Amino acid sequence: MWDGEAAGAALPVVLEGFGITLLATVLGFAVAAVLGLALAVVERAGPRWVAVPLRGAAGFVRSTPLLVQLFAAWVLVPKLDALALGVLVLGVHYATYLSEVYRTGIDAVPRGQWEACTALSLPRRRVWRAVVLPQAVRNVLPPLGNYAVSLFKETPLLSVITVHEMVHEANAFGSTHFAYLESFTLAGAVFLLASWPTSLLVRRLEARLAH
Amino acid sequence: MPTEDPAVRFERVTKRYGDHTVLDALDLEVGRGERVTLIGPSGSGKTTILRLLMTLERVTDGVIHVDGEPYSHMPGRKPGTLVPASERRLAERRRRIGMVFQQFNLFPHMSVLENVVEAPVHVLGESREEAERTARDLLDLVGLGDKVDARPTRLSGGQQQRVAIARALAMRPGILLLDEVTSALDPELVAEVLDVLRDVARGTDITLLCVTHEMGFARDVSDRILMFDRGRVVESGPASELLESPAHERTRAFLGTVR
């Protein structure tokens, strides 16, 4: 049954793992946010010979499991540090989803905005940077937030390539002290405590942007 | 450049969308500094003329000239031939034309001042101080000197449209296109916008092309009115003449509907 002492011993270990989890989330989402935006813009504004193969590659990444991608990267790029590799795979995987999100945001910018840019002779680059993307990103802040939460919850997968994130640490503690119940319960509680308020925040943001 | 070149010349310009012909081999000239108003039923091709000039649409056939040079086209490789203008060439040449839209199309995420400053800084290469000074003057001119820091969405439709006018003027266009600029406004806000435009017309030598249903405004500012129907000019003449004693039955019928 529940062992308070074991739980007390597990907590610092789990929290240390949480540091790595948080780091992987922030870095992974940063990669996804930037790469996803680049993908969306290239698909809309880039030359066809770049846009078409990129769309194919993104579709491929989207339709294969993250777990398989992690293993594949682990085998193919053995030299890279596990955390760095995990962050990159996570980032690329989510970039393919975020590019779709950005794309709906870009499409939601009214045609009149583009026409005003033409009437003012703004250069293309400036149109994207100053007019279209600020509005497009604003349009999709809530779904971006939701994807951040879901990326956060997928970080335990990184344990399969030996990243010492929270669930990996909980598992290790569980096996050495035979206290799986305590360590995994704590890890679950930390996930809940972190993602629950974040989703509430996203929902409030959504409500605020709605009017 | 010889001054006798018209500001705008349409040479047998045709615009088709699929099977639908909006403009049919249209010939049209607008003199430099001339104020021309296009009237006619909706779908008659008036707005298309403005959109072609702003390069929001491309001609199907024919050539548009601006200031005596081909505008929709450029010289081809073979001497004496014309090919459709490249995007780069259009980008260079559309600067001399400005446009105010029915729906204002202000940038909602920028302040009023930023809206007006954006193009002079990033297209004309003006310094920020210089551009802001001009912008403030223009916003004073349109009666919004106290709204420089406001977001466009906080303003009434009439105020937004006046910002849009200031924004267009900040690029110092030689030709200004006004596309039904009061059609989206509540009736009580129409006057403030038209008053500003009357001031602009009086105070500058800008070439004006307007599409409007405001016949009073058309009479006040236009040198000439063109009556359109089905992509062709039905009748053209000095404002007072055409509005008082239209020669054409089609014009009479149309004026009957807007009065």
Automatic annotation (TrEMBL), chain A:
Q: Where are the transmembrane segments?
A: 20-42
What are the protein's GO molecular function terms?
transmembrane transporter activity
Major place of localization?
membrane
Q: What's a BP term from Gene Ontology annotated to this protein?
A: amino acid transport
Kindly list any coiled-coil regions of this protein.
none
Per UniProt, what is the membrane topology? Multi-pass membrane protein
Decide whether keyword Ribosomal protein is in the record: no
Q: Which GO terms describe its cellular component?
A: ATP-binding cassette (ABC) transporter complex
Record-annotated ABC transmembrane type-1 domain positions: 18-202
Return the Pfam families for the record: BPD_transp_1
Query: The organism sits in which domain of life?
Result: Bacteria
Give the UniProt subcellular location, in the record's own words.
Cell membrane
> Which UniProt keyword terms apply here?
Amino-acid transport, Cell membrane, Membrane, Transmembrane, Transmembrane helix, Transport
Q: Please state which protein family the record places this protein in.
A: Belongs to the binding-protein-dependent transport system permease family.
Mind telling me what this protein is named?
Answer: Amino acid ABC transporter permease
Write down the species. Streptomyces viridochromogenes
Automatic annotation (TrEMBL), chain B:
What the entry lists under SMART domains is as follows: AAA
Q: What superkingdom does the record give? A: Bacteria
What keywords does the record list, in alphabetical order? Amino-acid transport, ATP-binding, Cell membrane, Membrane, Nucleotide-binding, Transport
State the annotated membrane topology for this chain: Peripheral membrane protein
Tell me which Pfam families the record gives.
Answer: ABC_tran (PF00005)
Q: Where in the cell does this protein reside?
A: Cell membrane
Task: Name a single GO cellular component.
Answer: plasma membrane
Recorded GO molecular functions are:
ABC-type amino acid transporter activity; ATP binding; ATP hydrolysis activity
Coiled coil regions in record: none
Using the record's annotation, list all stretches that form the ABC transporter domain.
Answer: 8-255
Q: Which protein family is it in?
A: Belongs to the ABC transporter superfamily.
Q: Which NCBIfam families match?
A: ectoine_ehuA
Q: What is this protein called in UniProt?
A: Amino acid ABC transporter ATP-binding protein
**Species, as recorded:** Streptomyces viridochromogenes
